[in-house]
Amino acid sequence: MGQKLKIAGWVSAGVLAGALTTVSLQTMARGAMSPLPLEEIQQLSAVFGLIKTDYVEAVDDKKLITDAISGMVASLDPHSQYFDKKSFKEFKEGTSGRFVGVGIEITQEDGLIKVVSPIEGSPAFRAGLKTNDLITKIDDTAVKGLSLNDAVKRMRGEPNTKVLLTILRKDESRSFPVTITREEIKTQSVKGKVIEPGYAWIRLSQFQERTVDDFVRKVEEIYAKEPALKGLVLDLRNDPGGLLDAAVAISAAFLPEGVTVVSTNGQLEESKATYKAVPQDYLRRGQGDPLQRLPAALKKVPLVVLVNEGSASASEIVAGALQDHKRAKVLGSQTFGKGSVQTVRPLGPDTGIKLTTARYYTPTGKSIQAKGIVPDVMVDETAEGDLFAALRMREADLDKHLGSGQDDEKAAEAAREKAREEARKRLELEAKKPAADRKMPEYGSAEDFRLQQALRQLKGETVQVSKTLTERPPEKKED
């Protein structure tokens, strides 16, 4: 692919409410570099020396240097990160779809760890953890003050070892401990079924190394049961992202060959790339093309894409590509807004940094960074409305987030905070209801309101549009 960001690397999924991280392992060699700022380097050296001589106790040299690197990288934006040996290994495990842990996708909220979603079938799922649960302690360690990376490290470990999580469930006004036995998590990123004669549903929960193969197998199963398929719902709700090549491949499964899926633009020449619906832009070296096994009818089947505030990065690439090419109607609520690309640069055999190197753009050139994909049809989570959408975190809420890089950003914080205050009040009233009345229906079930509306869209019937959702105002533009 020439000077493109090689799709040989990974994309991290689920750490910051779902953050696609396009990663390529490339050498650190660069062309002409700016001269080092000698005065600032001398100041750094002076601080290092003062800590070594004056601090209350001896500090290891390596720790000082690695902490300085980590702080420097983390100060850039929410998605840039320094990887030590252990975290580098864990990062690679996460994108392979296999790791040892409790099985939750997490983000950070008010200094605590918030559950974005328990991975289906995982120890956390079986223990009853729910979306929006807050983790206040991991074993005997208070989470307040821990970095997200440190919290992940403490929850991961060896198979068959136990970890004690203290959970705060706000909507039930209670805190309780849960002991979970760690195990190897083999995430199943594709589910699907024929939901009624002529209509099927496929859900992608992440974009991983196995996702494209699993997707093709699921489509084959569906067409074996329903060869005259009249409509398909592609469900990307709460999909936090994943591998860029998988996102390009899933888009290519539905789009005409050769059309643009996504483009990237950054400071480096190699960050300026366009990815198309062609095998060379989604296949890894030495792999066959699983999309060749798909029935030709898939290119033409009427399609609805379901999204929500938890749909991020790779999900937004797919939704944006299918929307821009008018291949599908996008239905649901405005997505997370993670539109930046991170590249992993090795610093040695087992350490590296993940650095934001570009923004990505939909085929028509729209940046969704800190904005997200706006659905064609806004549909609430339930028949009663989507009352708590304003409380959900998105890219624009993250500290030090990038702007979109486009000129349509206006002040919107006051309106956003007003909506949140109204949602908080509704949440307090909702918390007083019996727990059984507050349970959200399972995705893909007969009680899944958005799925039922997607089916109505496919059949040409009247869709119950949102009572509460509107397009989020653009973020405040910083001077």
Q: How would you sum up this structure, described in words?
A:
The chain is an alpha+beta fold. The protein has eleven helices and 19 strands. It has helices at residues 38-54, 61-74, 85-96, 123-126, 148-155, 211-225, 244-254, 314-324, 413-431, 435-438, 449-459, and strands at residues 81-83, 98-101, 104-109, 112-118, 134-138, 141-142, 162-169, 174-181, 183-186, 190-196, 199-204, 231-235, 260-265, 273-276, 303-307, 329-332, 340-346, 352-361, 377-378. Strands 3, 4, 5, 6, 7 and 8 form a six-stranded antiparallel sheet that branches. Strands 10-11-12-15-16-19 form a six-stranded mixed sheet, sandwiched between helices. The longest helix is centred in the C-terminal third of the chain and has 19 residues, at 413-431. The protein is globular and about 75 Å long.
| Unreliably modeled segments | 1-32, 407-412
* Helical amount: 25-40%
Oligomer: single chain
* Termini gap: 37 Å
Summary keywords:
19 strands, globular, disordered N terminus, S41 family peptidase, CtpA/B_N
Condensed summary:
Belongs to the peptidase S41A family. With 479 residues, the chain is α+β, with helices and mostly antiparallel strands.
List the helices and strands and how they pair.
Blueprint: H1 38-54, H2 61-74, E1 81-83, H3 85-96, E2 98-101, E3 104-109, E4 112-118, H4 123-126, E5 134-138, E6 141-142, H5 148-155, E7 162-169, E8 174-181, E9 183-186, E10 190-196, E11 199-204, H6 211-225, E12 231-235, H7 244-254, E13 260-265, E14 273-276, E15 303-307, H8 314-324, E16 329-332, E17 340-346, E18 352-361, E19 377-378, H9 413-431, H10 435-438, H11 449-459
Parallel strand pairs: 11-12, 12-15, 15-16, 16-19
Antiparallel strand pairs: 1-18, 2-9, 3-4, 4-5, 5-6, 5-7, 7-8, 10-11, 13-14, 13-18, 17-18
Helix pairs in contact: 7-8
